[in-house]
Each structure stands twice: as C-alpha cells, then as structure tokens.
Write a structure and sequence with these properties.
Elements lengths: L11 H11 E2 L3 E2 L1 H18 L4 H19 L8 H10 L11 H22 L9 H10 L7 H11 L5 H9 L3 H28 L7
Antiparallel strand pairs: 1-2
Helix pairs in contact: 1-2, 1-9, 2-3, 3-5, 5-6, 5-9, 6-7
Length: 211
C-alpha cells in the first residue's frame, strides 16, 4: 500500500443497511441494494488478502457483470423476480454464448452463503479462538460443493494461516471492531432473509441447476 494511503475497512452496518433495503415487497429482492451490500462484503475478502484469493477474483467478476446490467438502466433488472421473468420469457437462460444475469447471480449467491456461514460461526466463538476451523467448516458446507478438488485443497490449506477472532476483526474492521461486533447478529438475520428469498425465487422458477 502506498505511503499515506488510507485503508478502507469493512463495515457490517453498511452490509446490514443495504440488505435491509433490498427486501422489497412481494418477497422480492432489489438487485442494486443487493450488489451494494455485496461490494462491502467484497472488502472483507480483499482485506483478508491471499487467504481468500480462491474466491475473491471470481466474486468481483460476477459483481461487475451484474453491475453492467444495472448500468443499462433496464427496468427488467430492478429485482430478482423481474430479472428471472425477463430472461426466462426471452429465452436468454439457455442461449449459447450469452452471459445472462440469472446464472451470474446464482453463482454470486453461493459466495454469500459461504460468508454468511463463516460470519455466523465467528459470532459463536470467543476472541481468542482461531478462525481457521470456522472458515474451513463454512467452506466445506457451501462453496466447496461447487469447486474442483484442486481448488478445494488449496483453499483449505490457505485457511490454516487465519488468525484468532480478535485479530481477524482488527484486520478487517480497523478501529471500529466493537461497532461491527454489535451489529453482526442483526446483519446475519437480514442476510438470511435475503438468502432465503433469493433461493425461493430460484426454486419457484426451477433455476437452481442453471448450466
């Protein structure tokens, strides 16, 4: 990092507030608010450095793809429901050579499932406990199911270097550790609702197995 540059720390309050706003009526999810929350979560991966390199670049690519859809100001991509219906009706989901938003968001959502599980486990341990076991367990329950063996092996090995809960929060949250710890339970609660709504929509349209 260049001398004099300021570290941009992770803020769970920002994640909470954007996910809370993402919960719109009709059990739908606002895509812009979803991505704004995810951009803050991405800081967490960046601040952890090489430990999460197996997932961070992939997440950033998917965030950028979905942001491009939003930047076109297309009302069909306002919410997850309108996105799925639009791409389904126009047969974009199985169109060869076409990067569709529904598939991209589904892959991105798997990353959210991982970080929610990891942060939930962090909420259950003490400051002096190592975070490596929590991270490995969260990974094995979520993202590992979608990664080839070589990626899984490298990810698990990298996680052995992870610090204690106290040091991890200091690394990613800077001077506002307690502020982030205090909001963590509420952030997890709203994140679960976002996860459930999104998966329910993909269930409704039978899109969990998009190629």
């Amino acid at each position: 990092m260049a001398e004099g540059s300021e570290v941009c720390y992770f803020d769970l309050r920002v994640v909470h507030d954007h996910f809370d706003k993402a919960l719109v009526q009709d059990d739908d999810v606002d895509i812009k608010e979803y991505l704004d929350a995810y951009n803050e979560l991405y800081k967490f991966f960046q601040l952890m450095g090489s430990v999460f390199s197996f997932v961070s670049s992939d997440l950033k690519q998917k965030i950028d793809v979905l942001s491009d859809f939003l930047n076109k100001n297309d009302q069909n991509y306002t919410t997850i429901k309108t996105m799925i219906e639009y791409e389904t009706n126009n047969k974009f989901l199985f169109k060869g050579g076409y990067i569709n938003a529904a598939r991209t968001l589904l892959r991105l959502h798997r990353g959210l499932e991982f970080i929610r599980e990891f942060l939930w486990q962090l909420n259950e341990i003490s400051d002096t406990d190592k975070t490596s076991m929590c991270c490995q367990d969260a990974y094995n329950k979520t993202l590992a199911k979608h990664h080839p063996w070589v990626v899984r092996k490298a990810a698990i090995v990298a996680m052995y270097t992870m610090p204690t809960r106290e040091l991890l929060f200091q690394k990613v949250c800077g001077p506002d550790v307690q502020r982030n710890v205090d909001i963590l339970p509420k952030m997890l609660e709203v994140t679960v609702e976002v996860l459930n709504r999104t998966y329910n929509l993909y269930d409704l349209y039978q899109l969990h197995n998009l190629p």
